[in-house]
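Board notes (copied after class):
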Amino acid sequence: MDRQQRNANVNKRTDAFGSDSSGRMKFVLEIAEQTVKKIGASKVGIRISPYGAFNDTGEFDGIQEFYVQLTQKLSALGIAYIHIVDHSSMGAPVVSAELKNKIRDNFEGALILSGGYTAEKAEVDLLENKADLIAFGRPFISNPNLVEKFKTGAALKEADATTFYTPGAAGYTDY
């Protein structure tokens, strides 16, 4: 689902899919609702990055209230999970603990967090019940044996971002 549709900095529409927060979340909710009807809520999740800065998105007035309201509506649909991506490790603004907590409090499904996690930080957040799961993207790409490395405390290889989204094995199967 298009993050730009939800972001007030980019979505300048004046029709039913813009103009205010309910319009900006309309597309997401309609897709989620129809997907739930077709395959069942237990098979539906959504990944959000509230402060993602791609293509001039980023923070907008009322961002926390928007995502809390969206979370409540998605929870009412009974979807399985919300995956919050915090791109601050790549230069975007931090998704505040306050917003993560509000989403956690207003969503009945599983909560997945990701973004710049180490094994230690993941363990703390899980023990403090900040999330049900922690996702590791880039570390897993460059460390296919990530779980074993976490268990043994071995050093992690850095991902080579120049190979992301390129054809061939480089960056995906050559680690």
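Comment from the instructor: DSSP finds seven helices and four strands in the chain. Confidence is low (pLDDT under 50) at residues 1-5.
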